[in-house]
Amino acid sequence: MASIISIQNLSKSYQRDSFEIPVLNNLSLEIEEGEFLALMGPSGSGKTTLLNLIAGIDKPSSGKLTVAGTDIAKLNESALAKWRSNNVGFIFQFYNLIPVLTAFENVELPLLLTNLSKAERKKRVELVLSVVGLTDRMYHYPKQLSGGQEQRVAIARAIVTDPTILVADEPTGDLDKNSANEVLTLLDRLNKEFKKTIVMVTHDPASAAKASVKRHLDKGDLV
Amino acid sequence: MKILKLIFKNTLRHKLRTTLTILGIAIAVIAFGILRTVVTAWHVGVDASAANRLITRQAVSFIFPLPVTYKEKIASVAGIEQVTFSTWFQGVYIDKNQFFTRMAVDHETFFSVYPEFLLTKEELENFKNERTATIIGADLAKTYNLSIGDVMTLEGDIYPGTWNFTVRGIYQPRDKATDGTMMAFRWDYVNERMQQEWPERANDVGWYIVKINDPNQAAEISTQIDALFLNSRAETKTETERAFAQGFLSSTSAIIDAMNLISFVIIGIIMLVLGNTMIMAARERTREYAVLKTLGFSAKHIVGLILGESLLISAIGSAIGLFFIYPLIEGIGQVIPKGFFPVFHVESITIVLAVSAAMMIGLIASIFPIQRALKTKIVDGFRFVG
Questions:
Q1: Sequential DSSP letters for A110-171
Q2: Tens of pLDDT along B79-106?
Q3: The domain containing residue B330 runs over which residues?
Q4: Which residues of B touch A52 (CB under 8 A)?
């Protein structure tokens, strides 16, 4: 299978005052289309940084990063924003739903950037909410939902634009065991049934067990 | 347009804070409107002055009189269409705290020099035919519920004694800038009594009003008039009506300047209040902006969200302020002594200034939060703890 994400000699460091702190060191990685990759490692190993780079919300210090044929390191801010809206679905540890919007409106948000009509947007939102099993909760606000339900809304928001890749940063980190299982089952279904490429950061071996491929990071190096 | 719903929902997120900010803007708009209206009312004499009228007064001060005999001499200057005169009478009508202009005028010429006081032919004839007749403004008649034939009794102070006048005409102001509260009666009636009781004060008038054919000749005619009375016992100073009115204002210019300054200080204060609200709102939403950016929302969307919210708050605040400003000005107009501000209304320019200032506040208050939201990197936004 062809690589959908190609990472070559990628490095990332942060400047803190006069100190340069290296986070990723000359890292290379190929992720194939339809793969469910779990990035594991201790805190500070650079896994979230790598995920942010793949998702185009941070820029590498050096190296090449190609996602679905686009060298995203070369895109400017506005081009990168457009690229993200078309290609990446995000799932965060703390859901990051907009509290003043209903589940329906939160899921609809990424579609506001498309040319879809209101009716088409409604159809899509209802479809993905049914996929995550929240049809009956679509007009509830985030504070009226449980953690697991909030995360399922976040997953619906991530997949509503049918992105090229899904990235998930500790998606079960803030959930109880049952809710975590529901979310992982859903991700597994998205990968197997809908052929979504998923890159998931986790430090939980049970979560990582759902992934088809596991890679470990330690101090900025793949081990 | 698609983010309008989010702008509305964000605005209502902290209802108490938003309500207080909106109320602050509304109060600022009202305060600004009232102060500007007072300043406008102060200037109304200048604004209402005609370009083709000159005022000839005593050179030392307008409180000193001029001989009535000057009228013929002034009228002899080339370029003059008509000359009239008036005298400040003052006196008290019912309540000494209620002020309106009371003047003794030349009944033959006064109302043709002042066409802005609209009278019927019959009213004017009656005024000319009856020595104790008075013409009053429609606003004054309304205030004191006066109609034709009613007697108005003034207690004189500058001109002592009890003076009875019969209302023979009620003029309509030609426009909003015209005083509708004046009372004019005949100078010859006042002078007749002065000749009997205070002969040394008889045959004097307050000032002359000179109607000229060509406003461009004002300076030249003024010089010629004043030259007529050089080295006399009452030298004159002639100037345009506008300059004469401005001369009155110059003595109170410090107060007007202070009011102008205060009106702009109010705008400055409310700008800080709204700025503070927007900074707090944007700071609380740092993480949400990071989420929106992550989803693909661009800088223009973030600008639209913050600027839209700021402008919406300003617009609601100024709308509430405008809703209340008209009845409030009307109420203040009723409370202040009648005639103190003969023309007291909200001018269109005041509304335009108030709304523009409010929207400008909305715009400026959003600059810093926008700058901050755009500058914050997505990854830093996610790490932000408010």
A1: GGGGS---HHHHHHHHHHHHHHTT-GGGTT--GGGS-HHHHHHHHHHHHHTT--SEEEEEST
A2: 999 999 999 999 999 888 778 899 999 9
A3: 4-45+252-383
A4: 378-379
